[in-house]
Amino acid sequence: MKQTVMLKFESSVFPHTPDEDGTTHPGIFGRALAYWLADRLREVGVAAQKVFAEEFGWCVHVMAESHQSLYVVCASSPDGPNEWKVFAYAEEGVLSKMVGRDRTSEPLTTLFQTVKECLEAEPVVENLRTQYVERKR
Fold this sequence. Notes:
By secondary structure, this protein is α+β, with helices and mostly antiparallel strands. It contains three helices and six strands, in the order E-H-E-E-E-E-H-H-E. It is 26% helix and 36% strand.
């Protein structure tokens, strides 16, 4: 089992738009949050690239200095209309999977900490908390 570290918070400034629901699982929103967070990351020097939808939320592609692809996922929470969750993950390359070397830990930890600092600095973000979720590998 692996752990995913997730940030959860409350904010009423990220509106849901009806057309975004069709690009994710029903009831999953987060496009406004993803674009907002991508802008905040760029402001602090993180190479935030495009924002795109996946079934589980809205992703911000981040290019790490190590040329790894990292992603920040933004999604609404079923706990309420102003409840949000954010987590980061890395896409391992084929070669690192084959030789069993995971070099994503340090860049991912750094990105997660930067995301947390961006959220902590914003008065529109309330009740920021960290949650650890067990997941199958």
